[in-house]
Amino acid sequence: MRLKISHMTEYSYAEPVEFALQRLRLTPQDGPGQHVVSWQTSVTGAGREAVYTDHFGNHVELVSIDEGVRSISVMAMGEVETEERNGVFGPHIGYVPLWLYLRETALTKPGKLVRELARGATGDGELARMHGLMSAITTVLGYEKGVTGPDTTAEQALELKAGVCQDFTHVFIAGARYLGLPARYISGYMLDGTSMNAASHAWAEAHIQGLGWVGFDPANEICPDERYVRLASGLDYADTAPVSGMRIGSGPEAIMVAVSVEQ
User: Fold this and answer.
1) How far apart are the first and last CA of the chain?
2) Which of 45, 116, 137, 188 has its CA 20 to 30 A from that of 66?
3) What is the CATH number of the domain that holds 63?
4) What is the pTM of this model?
């Protein structure tokens, strides 16, 4: 499948900015199941300071915002060819050792609710248990915008019994690691005709013996197929956020994000 993607992020500031630095993870890369036909990112109101590959293998751009600016916009767009792999990404490669993906983070630390959910995931073998975990999450959590934020933990999402794809993914990762399987967070895009995911999407991958990394999207209760495009991977959302950074200056900011994915 050939997918055309555009992703625009606009920041507006109530007061002129003294200094700001933004980290962009908005460039997909060639890999199992996807080939980048064309891609470009452009920034208005800021200049590129560095481009590098981080320890998770993600393409990262650092941009600094000009002093006195009151708005910036970031546009990423291009085309990606994908293929059906039944959710299987394959063997682990890269700088980060596999055991690191067993490490708890602030967003994925398993509490009482995560542990109970994970223990209830049954099945004959690792793959079956991960499918069971995904189904269990879908049963417990309802997809609802506005009730959680970037800092919501897996345990908090289960307490609320609601969240968005980020929360579903954190719960899955927390449960998989509790059961002893390395798991990681994937940011990207999904072609979704229901418009359920109006922004960039997220799902998880668990490392299964004999298969390697296998994707699970608990927000939609499916394994990723040719409708998915990967952007970045990491231990949790903080490692993969499409746009993140810091700002010096007073006054609030407003953010607008518009994502389009079409065949």
Assistant:
1) 7
2) 188
3) 2.60.40.2250
4) 0.94
